[in-house]
């Protein structure tokens, strides 16, 4: 085995000479003549050096002074100064300075109820729906300031009532956690914020409350197959079949005229009546109103001029009514619109025997 040729070793990759870029830099520095001590003395080598490089080298030897020697602003000011500097952009909206802002007499949140167990009965919320409402109230507790007042109202349905109650619990828990002194008014129902109604033989009912009457009457007609179906049954059947087919029943209500359904514009009128009443009873307060998606969506369409879509569970449309009660700002899904508050007393009532004339026209 001694006659085997030894394998050649690996090449030596160690470098003792500096890299090319470093060797070039060191060579250039060695050729640079020392800077003359007298500024008036002529430096022949400086004539070939670019002016920007000469100025840079001159500044390198100068002591730093003035603003450059100070630490960054955020390191040398207190928290109060930082808050004041960021006051105009601390939210998603660019806000005017405090002295230019209009005083808000009513700050209303129109909140859709949490996830419900179903729409075929007057059922309450699911555990997820309770958690959604409680979390919403806890979030509001972070935003309110000490000394504010919060009013909680709701539509007179189980899902809206439970939503308002859980918002109130979450709000109370958050205020206790953050140690804020805020006055909270207990949840109460308000007729103005009810869901849109359907005219049935039992009277005007919420579309969910009318489901049992609709189902039993429809079953009777399907079993006997005698006679024409009443118009209220035909219209509510179209509404529910739209939902069962995976469509958007609220869009159906918004776009298809129906004789037995409360018109969307009347829901908007009702909501403005409730907002104005809250502004008179609790000026300057923050109002949490748990209600239903249909009227909320109609309200947003009337303010924004287009359909922004169905609100999710516990999503809200925010309405700020300014001092004087004639102007308001409506915000929904990053869209903000300034509008004129409708004067309800001057609007037509749209009754069958309507003889409406503009206010002051008969004077």
Terminal CA distance reads 129 Å
Share of helix among residues? 25-40%
Q: Which stretches are low in confidence, meaning pLDDT under 50 for 5 or more residues running?
A: none
Large-scale geometry: elongated
Class from helix and strand fractions: alpha/beta
**How would you state the average pLDDT, rounded?**
84
Computed Rg: 36 Å
Q: Using DSSP, what is the number of strands?
A: 9
**Tally of alpha and pi helices:** 10
- Specify the biggest β-sheet: 7 strands, mixed
| Main β-sheet, spatial strand arrangement | 3-2-6-1-7-8-9
How much strand content do the residues show? 15-25%
Q: Helix and strand succession?
A: HHHEHEHEEEHHHHEHEEE
Description of the structure:
With 363 residues, the protein is an alpha/beta fold. Helices cover 36% and strands 15% of the residues. The chain contains 10 helices and 9 strands. The protein has helices at 20-31, 51-60, 79-85, 127-143, 158-178, 211-224, 231-244, 249-255, 264-281, 293-304; strands at 104-112, 149-154, 183-189, 197-200, 203-206, 285-291, 316-322, 327-332, 335-340. The strands form 2 sheets. It has a 7-stranded mixed beta sheet with strand order 3-2-6-1-7-8-9, with helices on both faces. A hairpin with a 2-residue loop joins strand 4 (197-200) and strand 5 (203-206). The mean pLDDT is 84.
């Amino acid at each position: 085995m001694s006659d085997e040729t030894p394998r050649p070793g690996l090449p030596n990759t160690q470098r003792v000479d500096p890299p090319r870029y470093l060797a070039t830099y060191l060579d250039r520095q060695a050729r640079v003549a020392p800077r003359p001590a007298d500024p008036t003395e002529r430096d022949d080598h400086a004539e070939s050096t670019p002016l920007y490089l000469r100025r840079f080298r001159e500044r390198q030897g100068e002591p730093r002074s003035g603003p450059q020697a100070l630490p960054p602003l955020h390191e040398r000011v207190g928290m109060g100064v930082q808050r004041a500097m960021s006051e105009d952009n601390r939210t998603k909206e660019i806000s005017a300075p405090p002295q230019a802002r209009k005083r808000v007499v009513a700050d209303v949140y129109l909140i859709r109820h949490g996830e419900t167990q179903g729409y075929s009965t007057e059922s309450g919320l699911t555990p997820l729906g309770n958690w959604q409402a409680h979390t919403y109230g806890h979030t509001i507790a972070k935003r309110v300031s000490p000394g504010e007042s919060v009013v909680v109202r709701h539509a007179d349905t189980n899902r809206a009532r439970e939503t308002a109650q859980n918002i109130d619990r979450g709000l109370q828990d958050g205020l206790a956690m953050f140690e804020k002194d805020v006055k909270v008014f207990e949840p109460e129902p308000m007729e103005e914020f009810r869901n849109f109604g359907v005219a049935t033989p039992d009277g005007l009912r919420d579309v969910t409350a009318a489901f049992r009457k609709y189902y039993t009457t429809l079953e009777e007609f399907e079993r006997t197959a005698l006679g024409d179906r009443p118009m209220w049954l035909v219209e509510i059947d179209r509404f529910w079949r739209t939902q069962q087919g995976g469509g958007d029943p609220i869009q159906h209500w918004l776009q298809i005229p129906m004789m037995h359904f409360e018109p969307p514009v009347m829901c908007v009128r009702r909501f403005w009546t409730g907002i104005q009443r809250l502004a008179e009873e609790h000026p300057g307060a923050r109002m949490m109103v748990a209600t239903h998606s249909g009227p909320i969506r109609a309200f947003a369409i009337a303010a924004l001029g287009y359909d922004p879509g169905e609100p999710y569970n516990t999503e809200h449309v925010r309405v700020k009514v300014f001092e004087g009660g004639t102007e308001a700002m409506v915000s929904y899904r990053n869209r903000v619109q300034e509008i004129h508050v409708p004067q309800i007393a001057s609007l037509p009532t749209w009754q069958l025997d309507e003889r409406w004339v503009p206010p002051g026209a008969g004077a």
